[in-house]
Structure formats: C-alpha cells, structure tokens
Amino acid sequence: MKEAPTAVAAPAGPSAGAAATLRKAIIGSFVGTSIEWYDFFLYGSAAALIFNKVFFPDVDPLTGTLLSFATYAVAFIARPLGGILFGYLGDRHGRKSTLMATLMLMGLSTFLMGLLPGYDTLGIAAPILLVVLRFCQGLGLGGEWGGAVAIVAEHGEASGGAARRGYYASWPQIGMPMGNLLAVGALALANAVLSEDAFNAWGWRIPFLLSALLIGVGFWIRKTVEESPLFKDMSQQPRERHPLREVLRAQRKPLLITIGMRIASDVSYYTFALFSITYITQQLGLDRSLVMNGVIVASVFQLVAIPGFAALSDRVGRRPVYLAGAAAVGVWGFAFFPLLDTGSPAAAILAITVGLIGQAAMFGPMGAYITELFPTHVRYSGSSIGYQLAGIVGGSVAPLIGVALLSSFDSGYAVAVYTALASLVTIAAVWWSKETRNQQL
C-alpha cells in the first residue's frame, strides 16, 4: 500500500507499460501538431512570397503583401472560435476524437487551397474563397493546441512522469518549428527546382496538395493513441455542462495570464520568422532564398532549444525560464534589423536563429505552464481559449503592424520597439502568475 505513491513520485519516471502509452501520446501529438503547423505556416510563407501575385495582382507589391497578410490574419479570428468549439468537445467527449477532427479540418482546407484558381480566373471570388479556407484552417488550429498539450501532460501525470511534465508537454510545441521547417523547406525546394514563372504559375501549389498525404499519415498515428486517463476518471464525475461558462466565471485570472504570456512569443516569432521575409525581399531587395534559408536553419536549432528549455523549466521552474525568454526577444529586436541590413547571408541566419532561440525559451515551457494553470474539467477549453485569444492581439496583427511600421518609418527600428513593448506585456503577465512546476494535474 505504501509503494504506489512512492512509484508515482519516483524520479525514474513511468513503468515500461506506462512509458509505451506515454510515448504513443507524445508521438501522436508531435506528428499531428507538426502537420497542422505545416498547413498553417505554409499559408503564411506563401502570403509573403506569392499570394500577392496570385490573388491580388492589380496593386503594388507592398500593398499586395499587406492584403495577403490581412487574409492571413483571418485565421486568428477563427482560432478562438475553434478553441471554444473543440475545447467544449474535448472537455465533454474526449481529447482523442476531438484532435482527430481538428487534423482533418485543417488538412482538407489546405488541400483545397492548392486547387483554388487565382484572381485572373475567378476574379474577386478567388480571394473570398481563400479567406473562407483560411478561416477553416483557423478553426482547426484553434482546437489543436490545447488538446495536444493536455493529452500529453495528462498521460505523463497518470504514468508517474510529473517531474518531467515540462519536457513531455514540449513535444507538441516542437511541432511548430517542425511544421515551419517543412513548409518553408517545401516552398524553398519548389522555388529552387522550378523557374520563377513556373513557381508563380503552379509550383507553389505542390506543397499545399501534399497536405493530403500528410493528413492521412497523421490521422493513422493519432488513431493509435489512447484517451487521456485523467479525462476518463473525470468523465465519471459530475461536472460543468458548459466549460466556457466555467472558464469565464471561475478561471479569469489564469485566462488573462495565458493571454498575456503569449503576446511576446507570438509577436517575436512572426517578426523573426515571417515578417523578415517581407523585410529582406522588399525593403532590402535581396533574394527570397536568403531569408528562407535563415528560417530553415533557425527552425532546426529550435527543434533542440524547445525541449531543452522545457527540461530546464522542470529543474528551475517555469517562471524564470519564461521571463528570460521574454526579456531576450525584447532586446534582440534592436540587433535583429541592423544584422539584416548588412545583406550578409551569415548575418541574416544569425539574426533569425538567435531571435527564435529566445522565443523557444518561452515556447518550450509554455505547454506545461498553461496546462498547469487550469483544472482537468476545463483544461482543454481554458488553455485553448486563452492561447487563441492571445493570437488575435499578438500573432494575427504582428505581420500587419510590421508592414505598416515599415511603410511609415522605412526602417526596422520601429518594429523592434513594437517587439520590445510586446515583451513587457508578457513579463508583467508571468510576474503575476504563480510558479506551477509542482502543480498536480
């Protein structure tokens, strides 16, 4: 009778059987989030590179890019709605089935984008349909993140791996740089092997159509993952019928903390990884392969940095690691643009890589940190809604604000100030939060 609690708390981690179950949950979440972020970032990269020509050809390049990013931002409006919808389904009917639904919605939307004719064929209907599909992408991604981190963290808790919860919950987070790496890599490959005319005419569509194959693989893997044991236990007990109402009524503080702590992560990521494409190609007039190579290299480093910072948060706490990351991106913006201005490929790679490593110090612990703020019966809803609401004020407008500031001031310095202000918001939110590393789920 006395051995069971000791086994649960043992630093050695889960037993062999529990470890296999946990490993399936980790792989399923990692593969699924990688594919969904591939779909999501594929649109963002294409918006910066080609959509202004395909869907907004009758305006100047900078205005066309601004319009492309405006359609890009539509998904961030849909993401909180997806968080509410799929958060409800995930808290009421289970994490596993909900995550399979988000994967299918995201993949089908991306595949249809690859088939969508341009403005020259459909006229104004082309960008309108693009917005509709982007909205569907946002719904799918809005329901993805909260469920992916919840199911991994809850499997880890149930199998005796609570001491490494930060590391386990970082694997869905690694899906973001992996998805971006796949998206940018696919476009870079198409750009490299095709002429500019061929790439602009049809080559950009190939990575979108490949989404169908990736979704099939991801769906099969997720089908093998077991439902969260904490959800199974909770489903046998009386609980709130409307998770959203419970979140807004009893979980306001963790909801506000989640929103605030996400701002700097979103703004810095979209500045360093996405807006840099516009800055290098249109402000500096350099080849787009320069920034695409920089994002690829930086994403590779993030694959290591994210679980590394998450593991560090298991040892020293979520708050100090997260605060260090927020401060780092706020300061780095002032070195980022001068490095890009040199026009040196090495300087561009260094600028993007260091910036995204700073962002990884927030993104690594984030999965466990936000999961630990909410109780099990509203964990999917609370974490999803807070995470996605932050996307509206952070990630959705970051490229738009970046382009607008660049157009107004003709300099990256104003964008650096914007990134620094975002970091101050996040520092204040994390300072308001308690340390959650030893929180029981």
Protein model, in words:
By secondary structure, this protein is an all-alpha fold. It is built from 20 helices and no strands. Helix 14 packs antiparallel against helix 15 and helix 14 packs parallel to helix 18. It is globular. The relative contact order is 0.15. The N terminus is likely disordered.
- How many extended strands? 0
- What is the succession of H and E elements? HHHHHHHHHHHHHHHHHHHH
What is the residue-averaged pLDDT?
A: 83
Summarize the amount of helix as a percent range.
Answer: over 70%
Percentage of residues in DSSP E strands: under 5%
Spans of at least 5 consecutive residues whose pLDDT stays below 50 are 1-12
The chain-level structural class is: mainly alpha
Shape: globular
> What gap, in angstroms, lies between the N and C termini?
22 Å
Outline the biggest β-sheet.
none
- Helix tally equals 20
Radius of gyration: 21 Å
Keywords:
441 residues, 20 helices, disordered N terminus, single chain, mainly alpha
SSE map:
Elements: H1 3-9, H2 16-49, H3 51-54, H4 61-93, H5 95-115, H6 119-122, H7 125-158, H8 165-193, H9 196-203, H10 205-209, H11 211-223, H12 229-234, H13 243-250, H14 252-283, H15 288-316, H16 318-341, H17 345-373, H18 379-393, H19 398-409, H20 413-432
In short:
The protein is an all-alpha fold. The chain has helices at about 5-10, 15-50, 50-55, 60-95, 95-115, 120, 125-160, 165-195, 195-205, 205-210, 210-225, 230-235, 245-250, 250-285, 290-315, 320-340, 345-375, 380-395, 400-410, 415-430.
